[in-house]
Amino acid sequence: MLGLGSILWLPGHAAQAGDAPLDVVKVFLLAGQSNMSGRAPSVDLPERYRVPPPKIQYDYACSFGAGDLMKPEDDPKAGGPPEPHRSQGWVALQAAPKHLSTPGEHFGPEIGFGHALTARWPGQNIAIIKHGRGATNLAEEWAPEATSGRQLYQDFLAQVRTALARFTARGITFEVCALVWSQGEADSTERQWAEAYERNLTAFFARVRRDLNLPGLPMLVALTGDGRNNPRMLFSAEVRRAQRAVVARDPHAALVTGDDLALLDHTHYDAAGQLTLGERLAEAYLKQASAK
Description:
two-stranded antiparallel sheet, 292 residues, alpha/beta, Rossmann fold, 30% helix, globular
């Protein structure tokens, strides 16, 4: 478990601007599959989002399905570092570089999310820790109890703990403010995965809170798309129902929809969509925090 002495947190309490000094780092955890990794091309990023907010630190890992665990020698034509691609520590909040399964620099909801928080909290130190792994399911690959296969939950948890340990080693105080979850498309492709999604998501959130010793950690859920453009997402309605049910029962959770946002293909949000989704997620957190 993380030491509570390094975390400013009251169980059941969401942090508000002004709860702590600006030098306390507010930490946000982002996790999910390809819409969390983000396929939005950086060339479509508006100019005002190209300058990283100076008070935000960003630690990420991302991959896109078929490219996961690839090495450069597996596909010499693809180019870029191996996958999953990792930032190897704190970097500025900006688009990720090209890696093996991407056509170029790309981003997810983190940029809109970070800029929206900075606009609300000028001068506030913020850290975003993101773990996005494309084409991965909650039923097996993100399952906290998994002992074989990708074991993404353990990978994500190790990344979070390593990142936070860097703060602790430097004597920096931080508070973990929320988890943002954008995942569900893969589970909508198999009936048994979709039918188990409500149970699995409930267990996933409980495990995150337990392992981080944060029983009231807010959970922000990006509603999975309806799959109207993806013939493989046959059971998206069941996954969406499950997400709504989990959030409805959880007093520390909020649901954000992107149903009206544009896609660049059959599943993934385009640049404008990712920026708007990130802004909506930030607004959902701030609204929840202000209500406490």
